[in-house]
Amino acid sequence: MGDALKDQSPLRIGVVGAGQISGAYLRTFATLPNVSVTAVADLDGARAAAVAATVPGARATVAEKLYAAEDVDLVLNLTIPAAHAEVAQAAIAAGRHVYGEKPLAATTEEARAVLAAADAAGVRVGCAPDTVLGTGVQSARAVLDADEIGTPVAATAFMVAPGHELWHPAPEFYYRPGGGPLFDMGPYYLTALVTLLGPVRRVVGMASTSRDVRTIGSGPRAGTEFPVEVATHVTGVLEHESGVLSTLVMSFDVWAGTLPRIEVYGTGGSLSVPDPNGFDGPVRLFRAQAGHWEDVPVRGGYAGAERGYGVADLARGLATNSPHRADGQLAYHVLETMESLLLASQRGQAVLVASHCERPAAVPVHARPETE
To answer: 111 with 136, same domain?
Structure first.
């Protein structure tokens, strides 16, 4: 299939997985002219039918039929992380492009197999998060690309919270392998760091688990205890290929904090980057010569972007025969970086990150994925 779709618009999407997150994607797709949902599948047929009914022209079906459907060009994989690789492989085997929720797969071994299959089939792979395509991270990227803080030398990235069990009625999966603060929130922060500063060469890290048992704090099962199987506080240092050192802290063990989400420090100033779990937010710049912080106006990114813009950007890439930004190689590199951090914490020594990805192209200011 490959780039045979570059003259077709819109890109026809089959959604596999009709859970809560599907609603966010579908609301976004309704506003974008270069994508169109044609089919929805879920293990729960009634749920697939209910979701398909909200999209004009879409139908409910089963996954096997969706993969083979003539009116499906790309499979949007919104299943649970443990099923990401299986669904992606089935879609690729049918000759379909794939875009999935994070992570690309449960392990780098599974992710490598997905990318190899896609390469052999000549189809594209995309993966969330696509929050980095919004005006927040992209305006910060424009500041860096214009050398307005000089040469970057270091960065910090902090995500601290007391734990999702306080608000989530069924939080156990956050505390099983593949979960924890690193694998849950890390993709947002690491994808932003790579977008801003380029790929990672090696890492050092340490991790801890403060409690073996946690208690559900809300919903019908409030008061129920469950075991913790993963590290709940991970800290590390990433050495980017550029030489920049990024300090990362991901924690479900902190009740409150005033640490910045992401900051980048250069030879001529500093840059404050908004929460990478969102698409926009304030960007602030400190120039050494000026001696004070100033707000940065929007200088890049898809304005008004929401979840699903990564799919539209992939459609743009197909239409223009150019790379898409939230691609499989970037997602694989982020996944390997996270695995390497945990491995470094176990070994007590630095771990090399074997993979390399290109720093994604910047999104120009006022760009739209259907016209860029």
So the answer is: no
Given phi > 0 = left and psi -120 to 50 = alpha, else beta, which region is 279?
A: alpha
- Residue 85 has which token pair? 């690789």
Does 140 lie in the same domain as 194?
A: yes
Say if CB 192 and CB 273 are below 8 A apart: yes
Determine the number of helices (DSSP H) and then strands (DSSP E) in the chain.
9, 17
Are 159 and 116 contained in the same domain? no
Q: How far is CA 257 from the centre of its chain?
A: 24
User: CA-CA distances (angstroms) from residue 192 to 111, 185, 334?
Assistant: 20, 12, 10
Does 358 fall in a domain? Answer: no
**Residue range 305-343, pLDDT digits in tens:** 999 999 999 999 999 999 999 999 999 999 999 999 999
Cβ contacts of residue 220 below 8 Å, gap of 6+?
A: 169
Q: Model pTM? A: 0.94
If one counts the domains in the chain, the total is 2
CA 51/CA 38 separation, integer angstroms: 12
Range of the domain at 29: 2-127
Per-residue burial over 189-218, b if 16 or more Cβ lie within 10 Å, else e, is bbbbbbbbbbbbbbbbbebeeeeeebebbe
Q: Chain-wide mean pLDDT for the chain?
A: 95
